[in-house]
Amino acid sequence: MSVVAQDARGCVLDTRSLLDQSYSRCIRWTRTDKTRVHCSFKSLQTVCRHISEKGGAVSAGNAPISTKVNKKRKRKHTDLNQGEIDIKAFHDKVQSVILEGTLALVESAKACGNLNSTEESTEDPVMFPECGLSGLCEMAKQLPLVDAEEQETGAQALEDSPTLNLDLFSRVTENKSDSAAVVTLLGEEYVIPAKSAFLLSDFTRVQPLVNYGLKFDLVVIDPPWENKSVKRSRRYSALPSSQLKKLPIPLLASSNCLVVTWVTNRPSHLRFVRDDLYPHWGVEVVAEWLWVKVTTSGQFVFPLDSEHKKPYEVLVLGRFSSTVNGTEGCWSESVSIEDHRLIVSVPSTLHSQKPPLSEALKPYIRPNAKCLELFARNLLPGWTSWGNEVLKFQHASYFTMTPAEDDTN
């Protein structure tokens, strides 16, 4: 269970626990044999320090979250540009919600034995290779496009290809097994969670996801938003906001599907999602949630009142409504969603990796819901995932693998 504490304000997620559970049963495939292994992530959570506004690490120990706002020289209102004014207005609106809610949730988590770390990390930083998946997608564009009527529908199963000579770019690939699988794809080893499915492609090859034939009850979108940090780091290719409208959400969403979009703290992105993108898809905004990032000792990873980096990100939640035979489809058991609910967790040390939302969103979707993540960079058990780096964090280099005893149960 990844939810370690919750109340009316939100919940605290133990992301590491959820991921470890996902790989508790794992089989390593070779051309001639299958062996059981135990898989776990090598590196995931931020140590028990927070980062100062100037970028330096500051020891946090086991001290509680401070309720005191640091005093600093403020620029005159006329010195702020419109974007900064909008950021300040939004921060002023949510600051007290974040501060009070996080304090209460962290205390509840500590009472359950979580977020109590007092020691500095002694592990060396883990260096991971570049897998070049986006480059492979670019190469795949050179392959001839298949006419819509000639495209194969459905999916291909890992189990159906003993040599794993699969077409990952034009058909959805599934692991139907109850166990995770370590398999060789594109000449590299990847760990594929149980009951998961994925398509490795970009906008030009999204049609196979539509041809997959499933209607999803939950769609989570993590767009590669354009910003200065991304341009400087070149960690991934950003996408103009207007291009997001091309996502075929109406063709992928079931009636009353819950659509969740991760948004940066840039106000123009938030306005675009609320006022332009969601209406374009026929999605009604129902709530804004906040992901609050804390260290293993329960401190904000950045000072809450920092002018440059905030220890939180926004999620915009909406409901998709479809019209069938002139009537609006709906799920009669759907429940209302509270606004400004908090998801508190320790962020991954891997750039741009978000916490899995399965447990946090479970009360708001139908039982046995079909779930889809767009622009995914890793896979989740029971989910379908799409993106041009969808296998990035599934590469074997991110995992520690040790032999495991055969499961006799």
Arithmetic mean of pLDDT: 82
Largest sheet, described in full?
12 strands, mixed
Compute the separation of the termini in Å.
Answer: 21 Å
Tell me the domain tally.
1
Radius of gyration: 22 Å
Number of helices: 8
Q: Report helical residue fraction.
A: 10-25%
Strand and helix order:
EEHEEEEHHEEEEEHEHHEHEEEEEHEEE
Assign the CATH architecture.
3-Layer(aba) Sandwich
Oligomer: single chain
Strand content: 25-35%
- According to CATH, what is the class? Alpha Beta
Q: Which topology does CATH recognise?
A: Rossmann fold
Strand order of the largest sheet: 1-2-18-14-15-13-12-19-20-11-8-7
According to CATH, the homologous superfamily is Vaccinia Virus protein VP39
Categorize the overall geometry: globular
Coarse structural class: alpha/beta
Short description:
This protein is of the alpha/beta class and 409 residues long. The protein has 8 helices and 21 strands.
State the main characteristics.
twelve-stranded mixed sheet; 409 residues; 20% helix; single chain; Rossmann fold; five-stranded mixed sheet; alpha/beta
